[in-house]
Design a protein that fits this description.
Strand content of chain B: 5-15%
Strand content of chain A: 15-25%
Structural class of chain A: alpha+beta
Oligomer: heterodimer
Shape of chain B: globular
Number of helices of chain A: 12
Strand order of the largest sheet of chain B: 2-9-8-7-6-3-4-5
Radius of gyration of chain B: 26 Å
Distance between the termini of chain A: 21 Å
Number of strands of chain A: 12
Largest sheet of chain B: 8 strands, mixed
Largest sheet of chain A: 6 strands, antiparallel
Distance between the termini of chain B: 70 Å
Mean pLDDT of chain B: 91
Helix content of chain A: 25-40%
Mean pLDDT of chain A: 91
Helix content of chain B: 40-55%
């Protein structure tokens, strides 16, 4: 089992890892737990595992880096392959793939730092602000757990928000704010095909949005699962999530985050190739609501890892 | 309980590849090994059974006598009857808060305050009010206003928590004038002060100032002391001096918390006072810290941008730097971690949104070259952010010239070394 590492989501990963490790223990597997570091390849070569459970979040673990290494070593692993991992981690790539597939995602513009420092892109900000309206959602392209996401309520707030987002990644997205309900749909491959789990709705107590702090502190957010939605809307949302999963080429499991506006279709914000597996995480809660206990979930992910044939990889 | 973002980011700062100016670690590498060995041998020979046994909740009298000695060094005359030995100074903050604070009760403290106190106050659901500080410590005039405001609402603070000397995190020291005024206010309004003084003996230059405890003559000031910065943090030994009725309550709280402070640790300290020279040791670590402070100040001058400013403490182990207000040091930390350097974002020292553009930098935990490298990296990150912000607000246009516009010839760019005895092969323009 791979966990920890030094991405900004290290602590979340350690908690996901701890929970998975417990489950693996109950399932009577022989587990070696690795807090990933510079000796990862050596340790993998030495222990020759039958399968690798990746409980890493963020850079290095969720973006294809570790997946590439495991492919080279010929070790089966849980979750999406290299290409899907890259696409999910990079919101810009993901959004373009969704647009191509006709899946709704909020309007956006993406920049890297060079656009500003070398090409004077700052002068385009007024146009962008006009096109997107306020508040503008400013976020790093590759970062999980809502780190670095800011809302710019006015022109004056935009530079600070961009500087903050650029602290987390070299590429940043300015996105239209979609007012609506915050939903998350877990997807899990089963014997009967891709299953969309019951929809989770996030209702944070404080602040207008579901930020890093409210996500991981027990009691700061109310989760409703299944979300109070009509059957039609539930089906629609689940279908969109499944389409997203397939479009991005995910494998095994994923969590798709969406906004459900008052009018108009649900908008996909992002897909997470390795959703959080902590006690407060949405994916395990949704699985539970769908009748799949955490241990069963872990077991299924391992089975899927072992069943992966070369054509489903990357 | 408060933010886990900070905790999660801070957890990464402990990774070995990171230059961390974030910790509050004293330097323990120079503790005399031979003395330590002797201390252990002395205990083994003379007091092993007692050292390994439970001790009284209030601590051993011998420990307290040494505490009296330490306090006397700063002009305080304390009685062993008024003392409780604790498991680190941190425990005192916890016990005092537990004893006095019901959910919703008010605690007043400095802005910024010791980050480690905030989770304690929050855990007892205190209403924490922070009073602005400047280079002379807490603004006592603002404190008076705040106390008056609370009075008008029929409220009183349960205590005022201050770290008056070389404060963690700001490094500032409460001026003598303000100390006297603070004590006067406490006596007049019958308000308790909890004085936390870990760094009083770590003064590098300037005049020593009397602790609040010394100015108060033991009525309203509860004194919190610790051996962490003058002997060892790992031994977990602190103390509180308080009037009898308060002490009794604290004693009960401590009993419930951990029965007694480690006997072994107390015997170690007793042996140390007998065999070692505690004042000399403090003197020697002070020297180390002074040099490191100087290295940090020099590096800040060199590597931090002119828009930043910072405190210049005359002792202690921290410097507090403040950046332009469009920068958020929590986000900056994420970027800094990518450069393998860390600091404590200022927001950790506040209960509200303040401090977002400040940072705490520690100089006791690293040597001079590491400090210089660390400040250089942080400075680099700050400069990048400021430049980016300026570009975004149109303060400067994009700086780089596109390639291909250059009229430089290759020859001017590539300097070929002339062969001996031959003409330069650098080529002409």
């Amino acid at each position: 089992m791979l966990k920890g590492g030094s991405s900004l989501e290290r602590q979340v990963s350690l908690r996901s890892g701890a929970r998975v490790e417990d489950a693996l223990g109950y399932l009577d597997h022989d587990v070696e737990s690795i807090d990933v570091g510079s000796d990862l390849v050596d340790r993998l070569k030495e222990s020759k595992p039958d399968v690798v459970f990746i409980a890493l979040h963020g850079r290095g673990g969720e973006d294809g880096t570790v997946q590439e290494i495991l492919e080279i070593l010929g070790l089966p692993y849980t979750g999406s392959g290299i290409q899907a991992s890259i696409r999910c981690m990079d919101k810009v790539l993901a959004k373009y793939a969704l647009i191509d597939a006709g899946i709704s995602t909020p309007d956006f513009f993406a920049f890297n730092e060079r656009a500003f420092s070398e090409f004077g892109a700052a002068t385009t900000l007024p146009e962008i602000e006009e096109r997107l309206g306020f508040p503008v959602v400013v976020k790093p392209s590759a970062q999980g757990s809502a780190l670095g996401i800011k809302f710019a309520a006015s022109t004056e707030d935009v530079p600070g928000a961009l500087v903050a987002a650029f602290s987390y990644d070299d590429k940043v997205i300015l996105e239209r704010y979609v007012k609506g309900r915050e939903l998350a749909v877990g997807l899990l491959e089963t014997e009967d095909g891709l299953e969309a789990l019951p929809v989770v709705e996030a209702l944070p107590h404080e602040g207008s949005f579901f930020d890093f702090e409210s996500r991981y502190e027990i009691g700061k957010t109310d989760y409703v699962c299944p979300a109070e939605l009509s059957e039609d809307v539930t089906t629609t949302v689940q279908e969109i999530a499944s389409d997203t999963f397939r479009t991005l080429g995910c494998y095994g499991f994923s969590r798709v985050d969406l906004m459900l506006p008052e009018d108009g279709p649900p908008q996909v914000l992002e897909a997470n190739a390795i959703p959080g597996l902590t006690e407060t995480s949405l994916f395990p809660q949704a699985a539970e609501a769908g009748g799949i206990a955490f241990q069963e979930l872990v077991s299924q992910l391992i089975a899927l890892a072992l069943a992966r044939t070369p054509s489903t990889v990357s | 309980m408060r933010s886990s973002v900070m905790r999660d980011l801070m957890a990464i700062t402990a990774r070995p590849e990171i230059i961390s100016l974030a910790g509050g670690l004293p330097d323990t590498s120079t503790f005399p090994k031979d003395t330590f060995a002797q201390m252990m041998q002395e205990i083994a020979a003379n007091n092993l059974a007692e050292a390994l046994q439970y001790g009284p909740t209030e601590g051993f009298d011998d420990t307290k006598r040494h505490i009296v000695e330490v306090m006397a060094e700063e002009g305080m005359d304390a009685d062993i009857e008024d003392m409780l030995v604790t498991t680190g100074g941190q425990q005192v903050i916890d016990l005092v808060t537990k004893t006095f604070v019901n959910p919703g009760d008010t605690i007043i403290c400095e802005a910024p305050t010791y980050p480690g106190a905030i989770p304690v106050f929050s855990s007892y659901q205190a209403d924490v009010i922070q009073i602005e500080t400047d280079s002379d410590g807490m603004r006592i005039d603002l404190l008076e206003q705040e106390i008056a405001r609370l009075e008008s609402e029929g409220r009183r603070p349960k205590f005022i928590y201050v770290v008056p000397t070389f404060q963690n995190p700001a490094g500032v020291t409460l001026s003598l004038k303000r100390r006297k005024k603070l004590v006067e206010i406490a006596r007049e309004k019958e308000l308790l002060i909890l004085e936390d003084n870990p760094y009083g003996l770590l003064r590098f230059e300037g005049t020593e100032l009397p602790p609040l405890y010394a100015l108060d003559r033991d009525d309203f000031v509860l004194y919190l002391g610790t051996f962490s910065k003058i002997l060892s943090p790992g031994i977990r030994l602190g103390w509180v001096v308080a009037p009898a009725p308060v002490l009794e309550k604290l004693n009960l709280g401590k009993q419930a918390a951990d029965l007694c402070t480690s006997s072994l640790t107390q015997y170690l300290v007793q042996a140390y006072f007998e065999l070692g020279d505690w004042k000399q040791y403090v003197g020697s670590v002070k020297e180390i810290y002074r040099t490191r402070r100087d290295a940090m100040l020099a590096a800040l001058e060199e590597f931090f941008p002119p828009e930043a400013h910072w405190t210049t403490p005359k002792g202690g182990i921290f410097i507090w730097a403040t950046l332009p207000d469009f920068l958020d040091t929590q986000d900056l930390l994420a970027k800094a971690l990518r450069e393998n350097v860390a600091f404590v974002p200022g927001s950790g020292a506040y209960v509200d949104e303040r401090g977002a553009n400040s940072m705490r930098l520690n100089f006791s935990g690293s040597n001079e070259s590491t400090i210089e490298e660390g400040i250089k990296r942080i400075g680099g990150v700050i400069q990048e952010q400021i430049a980016l912000y300026s570009t975004l607000t149109g303060e400067f246009k994009a700086k780089k010239e596109p390639k291909g516009d250059s009229t430089e010839s290759v020859a001017e760019v590539v300097q070929l070394k002339p062969e001996k005895g031959s003409k330069s092969s650098a080529g002409g323009k």
